[in-house]
Amino acid sequence: MTTSAIAKLFAQSGDDAYFGEPITQLEHALQCAQLAENAGADQDTIVAAFLHDIGHLLPPELAGGYMDGYGTVDHERLGADFLRERGFSEKVAQLIENHVNAKRYLVFKNPGYFARLSEASLKTLEFQGGPMTVGEATAFETNPYFKGILQLRAWDEQAKIPGLLTPDIAYYLSIVERNADRVD
């Protein structure tokens, strides 16, 4: 059931533009998952990479608002909660729930990171709370998945290449299915 629900979300909205970028939601998800897989990431991390933006694909009635054409406000929390409710591991949920916090952290920690953000990422940063404060950054560094969250963020930023060949959705849905079977 979980995999079919995820497949349905991608069927309904996967061909939508990935906000402010020259690729679709599905292309972004596939590229991010491929980067995780190519890096030798574990199954939870590959699933999180594939589904990190699933909150953007959820029905509008679940959204708490929109970011002026740049997606759903709190998509990271909505997506993490959606997957928690379906029995995914806390690691999957934490990686997804914190990929926006990783952007906020990296902007706070590294001015060079801010300079590399795309126009769309800069726009969404305004809606996402801007750079972290010292206290927020210190607390964020204690997350047990801190390094994995930062790695997912790096893949998220890289996964925006028009026309890049990747495995298809069925391939990554099979990994999701294996992951869902493992946590049930």
Q: Mind explaining what this structure looks like?
A:
The protein is mainly alpha-helical and 184 residues long. The chain is built from 11 helices and no strands. The longest helix is centred in the last third of the chain and has 15 residues. The chain is globular and about 40 Å long.
Which helices and strands occur, and which strands form pairs?
Elements: H1 2-13, H2 25-38, H3 43-51, H4 75-84, H5 90-97, H6 99-109, H7 111-116, H8 119-127, H9 134-140, H10 146-158, H11 169-183
Helix pairs in contact: 1-11, 2-3, 2-10, 3-5, 3-11, 4-5, 6-9, 6-10
SSE pattern, N- to C-terminal? HHHHHHHHHHH
Percent of residues in helices: 55-70%
Number of helices: 11
Beta-strand residue percentage: under 5%
**C-alpha termini separation:** 12 Å
Number of strands: 0
Integer-rounded radius of gyration = 15 Å
The stretches of 5 or more residues where confidence is low (pLDDT under 50) are none
Mean pLDDT: 89
Question: Can you give me a brief rundown of this structure?
Answer:
The chain has 184 residues and is mainly α. The protein contains 11 helices and no strands.
Give me some keywords for this one.
single chain; 184 residues; mainly alpha; 0% strand; globular; HD/PDEase_dom; HDIG_dom; OP_Dioxygenase; HD domain-containing protein
